[in-house]
Structures are given as structure tokens and as C-alpha cells.
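Help: read this over?
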Amino acid sequence: GMRAALRRAVPSVLGAAAIIAPWIVRNALVFGEFIPMTTHGGYTLLLANNEVFDEEVVSRSWRQVWSGESLSAWQNELERRMAAEGIAPDDEPERDRWMSRTARTFIVERPDALARGCVVRLLRFWNVVPLTDAGQPVSSTARLILLTFYGGLFGSVLLAVATRSDLFVRMLPIWCAILCLSAVHAVYWSNMRMRTPLEPLLAVLASSCLGDRARGNPTEAAPGSKP
């Protein structure tokens, strides 16, 4: 019931609070503000939602790589604009807020770019081979290893979904984590590396397609036995 759920949740909440608390205190001492997570969120939001990225990547192909020269020019332009507005290079909170405002303005003015970008970012988030340009190709051996590993992992997850009718209920926290992180990176900057926190959870889902078979399917009660 609810009490049992709360008893399980409280230790996790307290543990998370204990881990994050020193970081919050540090940010309060350094910046004089309550910053529970990061001063980099505005940049990663703007990095994924701007005119240059939309024109050079989103409008072309989800596999298109943003060239280093173009990225550097865009970053330099951001620095010039912030300097013109009197934002100091070492004022991290204000820089973060400025970038967040700029990104939100682009999103509001260009909902079409947001919609296209969400599709592109989700494809990049769930990609199985790193995206590189012609100057830094992924070797065929590395590509084969990655395809084999992620093909087996994702295939096992799909097999578990197809064969375990109780998988969604039993693994609901895992599915919620997958949905939440995917939703975040549909809007924020996204690539394979951003999926790292989900890999252990995907492994749990993948292994569940084999667990009952290895144990003789004990989840099904024997005829005549008590539940």
C-alpha cells in the first residue's frame, strides 16, 4: 500500500538529499544563489535550439555533424552578444539565465524548428553508433562491436516486452526513468553519451527476458498450490 511505498521511497530521498547537499552548499557559497544542479543547463538548451543548429543539422539530416568551425563561430558570437549586454565571462548564473532566455525565445518563435529538432535529438539519443564527420570516421571494427552490443541489448529489451506481460508494472520506475530522460533530451542537447545513465536500467530490462526461463518460470504457480 501507500505506507509501504513511502517506506521504500524515504531512504532513497534522504540518500539523494545527502549526496546533493554539499553541492548546493558549495554553489551558495561561490555564487550566493540556490543552485541545486548546474549552471550549464541554459547552454545545453541553447546548443540544441538555435538558428545555426537548425539550418546546418536539423534541416539536413539527423546524422549530420555540426562542424567544429561553425560551432566555434556560433560560440564566439554568443560571447560577443553577452559582452555587449554587460554579462561578465565569469558570471556563470547570469550567463546561464541569458542562454536559457535566448533558447526559449527561439523555441517560442520557431515551433516548427522545435518539432523537427525533437525528432532529430531522440534519434541521436537512441543511436547505436557515434556520429562523426569524414575527418574522424568510426572504424568498421568499432562499428561492428557497437552494433552487436546495442543490437543484442535493445533486442533483448524488445523480447522481454513481448514475452513478459507484467514487465511494465514490475519495472515501472525503470520505464519512468527512460521516459523522463528521453523527454529531457528531446529538447536539450542530445547524443549517445547522454543515454549513459539508462544503460544499467536497459540491462535490467534485457535480463528479465531470460530470468524466468532460467528458473523454470517460478512466477507461475504450480497446479493445486496456494498463491
